[in-house]
Every structure is written in C-alpha cells, then in structure tokens.
Amino acid sequence: MSNEGPELDHSRDIRRIEAAITNLQKQLISDVISDQEFRSEFQVLQRQLRALAPKPQARPAPDLDRAAELLKKLSTLCEHPELAQTQRRELAREGFDEI
Which of 9, 17, 45, 68 has the fewest CB atoms within 10 Å of its CB? Predict the structure, then answer.
C-alpha cells in the first residue's frame, strides 16, 4: 500500500477513541479502575489517536538559485534611468511576488 493519495477519513475511529477516553475517565472517577490502569489504557488510546492524526504536508524546498537570479535581474531593471519611481515599486512588488 502506498502512502500517496488522498487522506483517509478517520473521523469515526477518532470519535470512537475519544468516547473510550471519556468512558475511561468516568471509570477512574467512579473508582472502577485504578490510577495505574487508567494511565496504561489512556496511553494506548493516545497512541491510537496520534496514529490517525493527519500527517503534515511536506513543502517543497525554495529554489534559492532562481530567487537569487530574479533579485539580480530586479536590481538591474530598477537601476534603469528611464524607469519612474512608481514603476520601480511595482516592479519590485511583482519581483517579490514571483520569488
């Protein structure tokens, strides 16, 4: 089985585990189980919840070489004598948006 593709919907399993934790807390409060039993079962349920949690999406690394190249071009363009100040600002804004 591949790790790629859409995330599975684990909401039913998560609700079941959360309900089990609530039930476990009630058992502890009612002295049905000991503190040690509670801790042990609680840790098991927490591990199950963590296993079902969505995995963070990996972000692609920025292309620093391309960014440096764009900044050099931007610097050269901004120094052009026929460019108005407002055009320089707009050019800089577009350059940074691209980066």
Answer: 9
